[in-house]
Design brief:
This protein has 87 residues and is mainly α. The chain has one helix and two strands. It is rod-shaped, with a radius of gyration of 23 Å.
């Protein structure tokens, strides 16, 4: 009977830890800024606004799928957001 007691205690404790983690991550995600309101380029290591005041680089290539401005460099072949092929 002692084995069953430990097994039940383990399962109940594991379930409670999972519920606490779920609750923690749900509240952490809802309190942070939503990705829809984040400007393009923010959080990607680049400023959302260029130094001259424009919102996109001068030689930006728009992604045909999602419309995200990407660098107009010959080595850049894929969109940095959705990984679609650029023209």
């Amino acid at each position: 009977m002692q084995l069953w007691g430990w097994l039940i205690a383990y399962v109940v404790t594991f379930g409670l830890v999972q519920l606490l983690l779920y609750h923690y991550f749900q509240h952490r995600n809802t309190s942070s800024e939503s990705p829809e309101s984040t400007p393009v380029g923010a959080g990607h290591g680049r400023p959302a606004v260029e130094p001259d005041g424009s919102s996109t680089p001068a030689e930006a290539v728009a992604c045909p799928d999602c419309g995200t401005p990407n660098e107009g460099h010959t080595m850049i072949r894929y969109c940095r957001v959705c990984a679609a092929t650029l023209q």
